[in-house]
Design a protein that fits this description.
nine-stranded mixed β-sheet, TIM Barrel, 20 strands, 409 residues, binds pyridoxal-5'-phosphate, Lyase, Ornithine Decarboxylase, Chain A, domain 1
């Protein structure tokens, strides 16, 4: 990670981050629209030699303003639930631009999504059988293949290894083909999603090989969908996926396949984190600094109820002390206010933190707000998007009323 000049100066598009917390309160999620545009362009450039389509995996961030931005720059959607499908359509997407990639959901959810016009990614043999019985050859589908390849940042975010619950094992190809034949199912695409935080091109190529080998058995394909999972930069010096190299290698392999297949297919990706992680910041305020004999603790007005990635799978979020950037470096554990182990960062060197200082967690654009909760009866933060040099509130802060709305006497 290279801190941008803006991050070093603690501003986004000329807007001072600390002032945002004064205007909109703390804690606060802030997104930089320009970063999202840049990431989309980078991926387009990397795959400019093939017919590539991006299907933003919107579980990373479902704010309507983010989805509308994606739509305005030609990015389509991948959803994992009926709720996400509905939000996508509210953002202006046509159902046909949305892929529904469920994981063992009730079949009525698939039925509703297909009837709305979304394209489903079938993820089990029983669902494939049901799909054939229900729709025969009247609706197209993709099949999610599990290639049995282990890759990703850590085991909790791997999705394609043999032990993973996702998709239909490539070893069951004969059974897949049998069901497809029995109902004349229109399989227009094969899909796989390997996992998250995958840095090297090698695993992507390995699964692409497996998927393309499998694809030879399906005559009606229009799409090969290689999922998401590109690694982004989390800390200074971090290595990330070399998109240009990956783009060249996969495009070459894909073009060779299309030639052999006899037709030009579309190549789909479903990036989540890659498109939005670096656009986002969670701004929090220091409530207490505890100089304990064992350790220095920085307590902030947030916790795993707002950003659970560090606690859930050990994710690293770089932290800036934007109120005292020139302070002498000290080592801290940065912790939240939730009554539960609630550590954002251990042994983290930061410019001296004082009560009231505003800290910024970087890489908070993906799996931040969407994974937040009301644990400890806490309200979730507001969200702000910065675009064209202006800060706009795109979700108001929750109130106590919001929390009580569903409770009955
Ligand atoms: C979560 C998910 C993605 C996105 O993963 P990232 O690591 O955020 O890129 C893509 N495809 C599917 C099916 C997913 O479930």
């Amino acid at each position: 990670m290279q801190l941008t000049q803006e991050e070093t100066s603690h501003s986004i598009q000329g807007i001072d981050l600390a002032e945002l917390t004064e205007q909109f309160g703390s804690p606060l999620y802030v997104y930089d629209a320009d970063v999202i545009r840049r990431k989309v362009t980078a991926l387009q450039h990397a795959f400019s030699s093939v017919d590539m389509k991006m299907k933003y995996a919107c579980k990373a961030n479902t704010n309507l303003s983010i989805l509308r931005l994606m739509r305005s720059i030609g990015v389509e959607l991948d959803v994992v639930s009926p709720g996400e499908l509905e939000i996508g359509m509210l953002a202006g997407y046509e159902a046909g631009q949305i892929t529904f990639t469920p994981s063992g959901v009730p079949f009525y959810e698939v039925q509703e999504a297909v009837e709305k016009g979304a394209i489903v990614n079938v993820d089990s043999l029983p669902l494939l059988e049901w799909f054939g019985q229900t729709f025969g050859n009247t609706k197209p589908c993709l099949i999610r293949i599990k290639p049995n390849v282990a890759a990703g940042g850590n085991i909790k975010i791997m999705t394609a290894h043999a032990d993973s619950k996702f998709g239909i094992s490539v070893l069951l190809l004969d059974q897949i083909l049998e069901v497809v034949k029995k109902y004349k199912i229109r399989v227009i695409g094969l899909h796989q999603h390997t996992g998250s935080d995958i840095k090297d091109a090698a695993p992507f190529l390995q699964v692409a090989d497996i998927l393309l080998d499998t694809a030879r058995h399906f005559p009606d394909l229009e799409v090969i969908d290689l999922g998401g999972g590109f690694k982004v930069s989390y800390k200074p010096g971090d290595e990330i996926t070399d998109m240009k190299l990956l783009g060249n290698k996969i495009s070459e392999r894909f073009q060779a396949f299309c030639k052999e297949y006899g037709r030009d297919l579309q190549l789909w990706f479903e990036p989540g984190k890659f498109l939005v992680s670096e656009s986002g910041y969670l701004l929090v305020k220091t409530t207490v600094v505890k100089e304990d004999p064992a350790r220095n603790f920085v307590h902030v007005d947030s916790g795993l109820n707002h950003l659970i990635r560090p606690m859930m799978y050990g994710a690293y979020h770089h932290i800036l002390n934007i109120s005292n950037p020139a302070g002498a470096l000290k080592t801290y554990n940065v912790v939240g206010y939730i009554c539960e182990t609630d550590t954002f960062a251990s042994d983290r060197e930061l410019p001296e933190v004082r009560q009231g200082d505003v800290l910024a967690f970087l890489n908070a654009g993906a799996y931040g707000f969407t994974m937040s909760s009301n644990y400890n009866a806490r309200q979730r933060p507001a969200e702000v998007m910065i675009d064209n040099g202006e800060a706009k509130l795109i979700r108001r802060r929750e109130t106590m009323e919001d929390l009580l709305r569903t409770q009955l006497d």
